[in-house]
Amino acid sequence: xxxxxxxxxxxxxxxxxxxxxxxxxxxxxxxxxxxxxxxxxxxxxxxxxxxxxxxxxxxxxxxxxxxxxxxxxxxxxxxxxxxxxxxxxxxxxxxxxxxxxxxxxxxxxxxxxxxxxxxxxxxxxxxxxxxxxxxxxxxxxxxxxxxxxxxxxxxxxxxxxxxxxxxxxxxxxxxxxxxxxxxxxxxxxxxxxxxxxxxxxxxxxxxxxxxxxxxxxxxxxxxxxxxxxxxxxxxxxxxxxxxxxxxxxxxxxxxxxxxxxxxxxxxxxxxxxxxxxxxxxxxxxxxxxxxxxxxxxxxxxxxxxxxxxxxxxxxxxxxxxxxxxxxxxxxxxxxxxxxxxxxxxxxxxxxxxxxxxxxxxxxxxxxxxxxxxxxxxxxxxxxxxxxxxxxx
Length: 392
Ligand code: SF4
Prior knowledge:
About 45% of the residues lie in helices and about 10% in strands.
């Protein structure tokens, strides 16, 4: 096992060397933080109290944190960086929820609203991805008043009708709860039916920050933290994998991050149903949240810190930590892939949500772009399926 003294004296593995760990000198970190990093290098998981200390890292400490996270990533999941060739389908932008951080949705009476769950629309969208062969469709929409249990089933049937081999990664816990409410049925029954009709996995979106006070301020009409946790645990019990997400960098504090990550860890210890953790930096530009609340915008160093701490705290249970090229751009995403992340995310082909909020990094990433960026990091690239089955 790589020892601390090896780090300091430069006796490093090839991959560690690529991260310039020769420069690591943990003595430059505060004593408490240094001890936590030492323990992490001995495969000890930080406690909740230690998690708060990690999140308090500043300046050079964050570089050290990133380098330690990179060593741990190598140990836990190796040097391969994965990506998925998928297609986003946002079938409606109409939503009655009006979350303050969302610039994508419009209210039900808006003339800018659209709603199309027809097989022709889905086929056209999937055909636009040629010559690439997608393995996944990622399907999410607003909470349109016309949506109910039957319309969600229709979506699944239409997609399966186009290509039964496609993995359908669809419907956030918010949409699942809406489907259940529409027929006054248990979430569990709804999930069973969706699975029967081809639902392969669920995006763990709508988690935002798992704290009801924060939720009241940023998404008052959304499901509660307890409902999100309940829906996710039911999915896992029924053999429907999900991702885990957090929307960070708005009105919340680092104590909310600690709580959120602790909840995710507790769920995963119980169910092992999460495929990956996807931290999502908040893009504020066009949102109501930016107009109504003042908050401190996170820096690139803060982003590195968040991804690195996620690896230290969750990496033994969440092998896969996904960066976000959509939110961060490719150069910054590459840096996070040297600070704990191991997955680049998806090709998307039509990214709408972040672009509406003011994101400027595009709507598509081709497989070639992923491969080139990964090779520049001197790492191995590999296409994966939704559930991390390797396709290379
Ligand atoms: Fe609606 Fe989702 Fe946007 Fe909230 S985040 S307003 S639920 S589309």
